[in-house]
């Protein structure tokens, strides 16, 4: 299938301080790829270099088999984290204008996307009349209305309720099935875990995790208990950390802990309806990597 993106030994510094240091990764055609990391890690700098807004100090970047020419840039779709739509234009005029900037205007495709995103009935409203979530969906449509081959989505789920989050999730996966290559940058690790084929995690300018979600989780071993329970859960011997979410919990075991003994202790304290030994969630791996660094 080949790679849509190849980043090779890229570094970038500002005022003598490295923001990105000697990073390398590739994104295959049709892949949904996650770019993750804490705030200030270097994600935005990477995205700007992929868009040719910034140039690397060293190393090479190839997109769609080429350098970043104007023709290649027209085949890229971009949803920036910093949103910006013309507030006094109507939805349909906004999308027509942004499509024209990419030399591709397809009113039919635009109307189809508006219908898919549940926004067709709002096409004649001004942007300033839309809610934050509705405006977010228009921004996403603007990023893909010119039918790009490579799509960069920076925090695509921002401002969305669970229903619309699923709608955007389904749209992204459908684009991937159609052969589009998609890079997602987000802090929502549960979405990354469900959607992405592979991830690249950057921290303080350095690549710290790279590979498939399954392979990365397997590296950390089955040291986590997923628990559904009733009662009060605390002070479990052999458990070093408990992440609560109502009647659900993720328990991170201490090294060498006896799982059966932990289960006996838990069962003596709360009523257990589900107990599963698992690899840690990507969210927990993210926290662990950052804390250890």
TrEMBL record:
It comes from the Archaea. GO terms for molecular function: ATP binding; ATP hydrolysis activity. PROSITE patterns: ABC_TRANSPORTER_1, ABC_TRANSPORTER_2. Gene3D superfamilies: P-loop containing nucleotide triphosphate hydrolases. The keyword Cytoplasm does not apply. Residues 5-229 form the ABC transporter domain. Pfam families: ABC_tran, DrrA1-3_C. Keywords: ATP-binding, Nucleotide-binding, Transport. Belongs to the ABC transporter superfamily. This is ABC-type uncharacterized transport system ATPase component. It comes from Candidatus Methanoperedens nitratireducens. The lineage of its organism: Archaea, Methanobacteriati, Methanobacteriota, Stenosarchaea group, Methanomicrobia.
């Amino acid at each position: 299938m080949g790679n849509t993106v190849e980043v090779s030994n890229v570094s970038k510094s500002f005022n003598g301080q490295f923001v990105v240091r000697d990073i390398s990764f590739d994104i295959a055609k049709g892949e949904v790829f996650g770019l993750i990391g804490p705030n200030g890690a270097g994600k935005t700098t990477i995205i700007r270099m992929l868009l040719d807004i910034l140039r690397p100090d060293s190393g090479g970047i190839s997109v769609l088999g080429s350098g970043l020419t104007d023709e290649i840039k027209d085949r890229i779709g971009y949803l920036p984290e910093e949103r910006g739509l013309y507030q006094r234009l109507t939805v349909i005029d906004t999308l027509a204008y942004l499509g024209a900037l990419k030399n591709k205007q397809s009113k039919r495709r635009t109307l189809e996307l508006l219908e898919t995103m549940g926004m067709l009935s709002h096409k004649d409203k001004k942007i300033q009349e839309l809610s934050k979530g509705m405006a977010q969906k228009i921004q996403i449509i603007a990023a893909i209305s010119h039918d790009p081959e490579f799509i960069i989505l920076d925090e695509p789920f921002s401002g969305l309720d669970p229903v619309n989050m699923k709608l955007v999730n389904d749209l992204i996966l459908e684009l991937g099935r159609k052969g589009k290559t998609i890079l997602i940058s987000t802090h929502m690790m549960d979405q990354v875990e469900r959607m992405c084929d592979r991830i690249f995690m950057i921290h303080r300018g350095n690549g710290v995790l790279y590979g498939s979600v399954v392979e990365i989780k397997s590296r950390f071993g089955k040291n986590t208990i997923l628990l559904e329970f009733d009662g009060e859960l605390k002070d479990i011997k052999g458990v070093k950390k408990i992440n609560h979410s109502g009647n659900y919990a993720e328990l991170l075991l201490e090294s060498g802990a006896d799982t059966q003994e932990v289960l006996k202790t838990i069962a003596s304290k709360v009523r257990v309806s589900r107990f599963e030994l698992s690899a840690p969630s990507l969210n927990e791996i993210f926290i662990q990597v950052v804390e250890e660094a």
